[in-house]
């Protein structure tokens, strides 16, 4: 297919996100499963920390009382929700500097802590420790207290807690203790103690030292903590975990990448080439993990320690949208916009008097998955090879109409095909690996569009797929009525929100206008050289709130060449602020000494208008047989609501479906 660049200016994603009709903003559920509780347990830093601390308290009889115990709680939770597998790729955009992407097309490993959890739940040492960095920075209240420490052949992780560096390496599964069973030690301590390595132990956690076969000699050589071996500004929290379901839209999640819709879809490395493993599905398929297995500690070495351990796969989801054009209000429906001469009439979208257009947007914190088109039995390389079946627009037009796609928040568009009579347009290969897009349908004068449908298949991190437990399981539902605006992770998306008129004194400013009151502002940028860096936000463009306090090169008195940076020369600044009682619909984010080749900005906002309730259906297999199913309708009332599902023994959750309740 020929892609044609369209030069004329059209509304940005900002304009396309209208005030909503009865949408469900930010729907989430959590279960009472001991480990795999789902998104409501971990969709914000605060929720994840509360879950990790509660898990720690349930095991050790008290909530984390020290900085070290806070680190241990986070380490244990994330280790149990992480798979040691490659391929957690994100499009950061062409021109993005090497700290994020060395790929000429801007493809690199995600360093976003929550995004990595929700879109992948995987990572090798480099990327998973980058993702872990912001959680330790935030729980300890110090951006310099988390380090991705370099040792030969490995990027490890340490936290500076209670006056010392402490190893917390989830790739190898290591926290190491020496003479004090309550105090984990750091890499330099381990290196000094290798001569008596038999005395090193798992402390009160009863960690199995080296659960995946890794040797403590890995830590036998490292530079001084404030030297080039320490990399502190290595990861960040950026994209908010928020999406919106509209009337006529469903979101189904399957526990496996195959599901029951006939489309295997992944966005990860395919491990089918591993001799002897014989995976049933493409994509992530590794045994070395604690995820879906059980707690770290007590001598456990995770799934690798079980007899014939099962493979762990990514989950899959599908957004399927069939708007009712008899009731659709183009001025209020979330994600829609149109030229003034396009309206709904008799169940059709009609362009009156002249050519007109309508746009529809998709945005979610789950990466758009890919199904390799050429050979389903081959080892897939979905980033490089042609893909299909995961993004499809269908419908009927009265006359040939153009369909355009924007991947940069509406700044530019390219033609991806024609909608002529009954049509089905597959644009999967253009949006795979992305988190948001806009489609624009240009109708000729008098042209009509009827019965449109939009299907977007995504990869879901298996760590956030909610599991039902045996012998009855309680589901908790909560929706915060939030909408979201994406200015990333492709750094070119942020340019749609540049507010250069507010620049000055080293600051670069961004402005986000929303249909409702701003509820949170999020910003990430790299540092343009070794300078002071900081992040601030505002809801009036005049009074600024500190999202990241100024940080200079290093701690006082340290050599100017000591590295606090993410890869030796570049570091990330990041921060966010919530605005619970704000009424302004415009938000501002600015960076001191930021670098526009890696900037991301995001906002959440209160969706105006009447919210909808949500219908939830769960499907599982237990001792009574396959495809057990139950449904419940939750209301639009604020706050948590609960529902108990009558599961039996040996429960396996198959799929979960969300659907806005009928108006």
Please sum up the structure shown:
The chain is mainly beta. The protein has a domain at 33-219. It has 8 helices and 38 strands.
Notes on the protein architecture:
The protein is mostly beta strands. The protein has a domain at 33-219. The protein is 11% helix and 33% strand. Helix 4 (113-119) packs across helix 5 (125-140). The radius of gyration is 25 Å and the shape is globular. Mean pLDDT is 90; it is low at 1-16 and 554-561.
Radius of gyration: 25 Å
What's the average pLDDT?
90
Instruction: Note the total helix count.
Output: 8
Major sheet: size, sense and barrel closure? 10 strands, antiparallel
End-to-end CA span: 40 Å
Q: Structural class, judged by helices and strands? A: mainly beta
- Taken as a percent bin, the fraction of beta residues is 25-35%
Shape: globular
Helix content: 10-25%
- Indicate the low-confidence ranges by residue numbers: 1-16, 554-561
Topology:
Layout: E1 4-6, H1 13-16, E2 24-25, E3 27-31, H2 45-60, H3 67-79, E4 89-91, E5 107-109, H4 113-119, H5 125-140, E6 146-147, E7 150-151, E8 154-155, E9 158-161, E10 164-167, H6 187-192, E11 244-245, E12 249-254, E13 315-321, E14 336-338, E15 342-345, E16 348-351, E17 356-363, E18 371-372, E19 387-388, E20 391-397, E21 401-406, E22 413-419, E23 422-426, H7 428-431, E24 436-443, E25 448-460, E26 473-479, E27 482-487, H8 491-494, E28 507-513, E29 518-527, E30 533-538, E31 545-551, E32 572-578, E33 586-592, E34 594-606, E35 614-622, E36 625-634, E37 641-645, E38 652-660
Antiparallel strand pairs: 1-22, 2-11, 3-26, 4-5, 6-9, 7-8, 9-10, 12-13, 12-38, 13-25, 14-17, 15-16, 16-25, 17-24, 18-19, 20-23, 20-25, 21-22, 21-24, 26-37, 27-34, 28-33, 29-32, 29-34, 30-31, 30-33, 35-36, 35-38
Helix pairs in contact: 2-3, 3-5, 4-5
């Amino acid at each position: 297919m020929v892609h044609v660049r369209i030069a004329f200016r059209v509304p940005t994603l900002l304009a396309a996100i209208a005030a909503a009709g009865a949408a469900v903003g930010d729907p989430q559920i959590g279960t009472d499963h001991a480990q795999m509780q789902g998104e409501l347990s971990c969709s914000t830093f605060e929720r994840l920390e509360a879950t990790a601390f509660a898990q720690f308290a349930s095991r050790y009889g008290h909530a984390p009382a020290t900085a070290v115990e806070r680190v241990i709680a986070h380490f244990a939770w994330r280790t149990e929700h992480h798979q040691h597998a490659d391929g957690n790729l994100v499009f950061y955009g062409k021109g993005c500097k090497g700290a994020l992407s060395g790929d000429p097309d801007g493809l690199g490993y995600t360093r976003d802590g929550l995004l990595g959890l929700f879109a992948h739940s995987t990572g090798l040492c480099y990327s998973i420790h980058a993702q872990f960095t912001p959680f330790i920075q935030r729980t300890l209240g110090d951006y310099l207290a988390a380090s991705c420490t370099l040792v030969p052949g490995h990027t490890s992780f340490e936290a500076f807690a209670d006056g010392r560096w402490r190893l917390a390496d989830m790739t190898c599964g290591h926290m190491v203790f020496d003479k004090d069973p309550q105090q984990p030690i750091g890499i330099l301590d381990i290196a000094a103690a290798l001569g008596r390595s038999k005395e090193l132990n798992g402390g009160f956690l009863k960690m199995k030292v080296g659960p995946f076969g890794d040797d403590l000699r890995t830590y036998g050589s490292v530079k001084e903590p404030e030297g080039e071996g320490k990399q502190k500004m290595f990861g960040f929290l950026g994209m908010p975990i928020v999406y919106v379901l509209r009337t006529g839209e469903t979101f189904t999640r399957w526990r496996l990448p195959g599901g029951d819709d006939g489309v295997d879809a992944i966005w990860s490395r395919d491990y089918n080439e591993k001799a002897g493993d014989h995976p049933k599905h493409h994509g992530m398929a590794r045994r070395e993990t604690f995820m879906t297995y059980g707690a770290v500690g007590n001598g456990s070495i995770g799934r690798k320690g079980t007899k014939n351990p099962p493979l762990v796969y990514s989950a899959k989801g599908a957004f399927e949208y069939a708007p009712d054009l008899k009731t659709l209000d183009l001025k209020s429906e979330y994600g829609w916009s149109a030229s003034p001469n396009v309206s709904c009439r008799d169940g059709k979208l009609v362009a009156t008097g002249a050519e007109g257009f309508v746009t529809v947007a998709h945005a979610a914190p789950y990466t758009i998955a890919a199904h390799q088109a050429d050979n389903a039995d081959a080892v897939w390389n979905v980033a490089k090879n042609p893909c299909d079946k995961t993004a499809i627009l269908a419908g009927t037009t009265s006359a040939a109409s153009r369909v355009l796609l924007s991947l940069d928040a509406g700044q530019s568009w390219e033609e991806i095909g024609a909608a002529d009579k009954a049509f089905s347009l597959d644009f999967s290969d253009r949006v795979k690996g992305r988190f948001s897009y806009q489609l624009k349908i240009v109708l000729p004068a008098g042209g009509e569009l009827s019965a449109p449908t939009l299907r977007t298949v995504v990869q879901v991190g298996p760590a956030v797929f909610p599991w039902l437990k045996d012998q009855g399981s309680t589901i908790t539902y909560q929706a915060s009525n939030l909408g979201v605006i994406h200015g990333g992770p492709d750094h070119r998306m942020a340019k749609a929100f540049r507010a250069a008129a507010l620049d000055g004194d080293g600051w670069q400013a961004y402005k986000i206008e929303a249909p409702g009151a701003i509820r949170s502002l999020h910003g990430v940028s790299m540092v343009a050289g070794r300078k002071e860096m900081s992040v601030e936000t505002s809801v009036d463009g005049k009074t600024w709130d500190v999202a990241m306090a100024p940080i200079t090169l290093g701690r006082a008195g340290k050599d100017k060449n000591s590295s606090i940076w993410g890869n030796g020369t570049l570091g990330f600044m990041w921060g966010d602020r919530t605005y619970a009682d704000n009424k302004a619909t415009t938000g501002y984010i600015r960076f001191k000494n930021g670098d526009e080749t890696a900037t991301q900005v995001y906002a959440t906002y209160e969706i105006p208008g009447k919210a909808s309730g949500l219908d939830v259906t769960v499907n599982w297999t237990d001792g009574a047989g396959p495809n057990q199913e139950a449904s419940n309708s939750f209301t639009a009332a604020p706050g948590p609501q609960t529902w108990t599902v009558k599961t039996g023994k040996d429960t396996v959750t198959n799929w979960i479906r969300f659907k806005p309740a009928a108006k």
